Amino acid sequence: NAGVTQTPKFRILKIGQSMTLQCTQDMNHNYMYWYRQDPGMGLKLIYYSVGAGITDKGEVPNGYNVSRSTTEDFPLRLELAAPSQTSVYFCASSYGGSGTYEQYFGPGTRLTVT
Amino acid sequence: GNSVTQMEGPVTLSEEAFLTINCTYTATGYPSLFWYVQYPGEGLQLLLKATKADDKGSNKGFEATYRKETTSFHLEKGSVQVSDSAVYFCALTLDENNRLAFGKGNQVVVIP
Fold first, then answer.
1. For A51, phi and psi rounded to 5 degrees?
2. Strand partners, B8
3. Fewest beta carbons less than 10 Å away: which of A78, B38, B54, B65?
4. Closest to A65 measured CA to CA, from A44, A86, A88, A49
């Protein structure tokens, strides 16, 4: 199993550009999450999904969109990139809900918006 | 709402020293509690967890006990190694969808 994979690893965007961060998991997990990590601030949840076709907002969804057409893939779309979106983005997945299952994280995408 | 608070600042200590990282939480109900570790350049990985009061999670020599009376989940290791240098995050579940609230993390540096 590759686990959770993310592409690209690094990206530099100009203000106003758009891009999609890719996330794929091969563990047949129903639950998937997108976080951003800013220095000294922990992780903040952007969006999450409890299954194919179902997505919901997290704590910091503004400026982002997601879709979940398959169990495996959960891409994150940035429209009109802004310097405030400079961050490290992590995708994670979990087998189930109930509040007891661990989340498995991808290696992250480091994004700089200039 | 539910949240976690970690002690402020990085932790620097010598090899074989005792490590404690404090974590306290605010919650309604009885959330599960986790410690995640992030090694340089990598994503987070689960270190240990506890799902109910008085549970002790343990892994790789690390331990933490779910204390309802003090709303705490402090991480401890008796003898750290250089390879334990990493950032450690305390987290709790917010709901049945497994959404997590993370603390700000503590950088641990172990000096040979």
1. 170, 170
2. none
3. B54
4. A49
Which residues, in sequence order, are CB contacts of B29 under 8 Å at separation 6+? none
Q: Cα separation of B50 and B37, whole Å?
A: 15
Give tens-digit pLDDT for B20-68: 999 999 998 889 999 999 999 889 999 999 999 999 999 999 999 999 9
Give the phi and the psi of residue B16 in degrees, each rounded to 5.
Answer: 75, 0
**pLDDT tens-digit series, residues A7-20:** 999 999 999 999 99
B44 contacts on A by Cβ (under 8 Å): 43, 90, 92, 103, 105
Q: At A2, is the pLDDT very low, low, confident or very high (cuts 50, 70, 90)?
A: confident
Chain B residues within 8 angstroms (CB to CB) of chain A: 31-32, 34, 41-46, 49, 51, 89, 93, 95-100, 102-105
Cα separation, B110 vs A7, in Å, equals 32
* Overall residue count recorded for chain A in this entry: 114
Q: Do B89 and A102 touch (CB under 8 A)?
A: no
CB atoms within 10 A of CB B10: 10
The closest CB to that of B43, out of A97, A100, A108, belongs to A108
Helix (H, G, I), strand (E, B) or coil at B68: coil
**Are A104 and A29 contacting, i.e. CB atoms less than 8 angstroms apart?**
yes
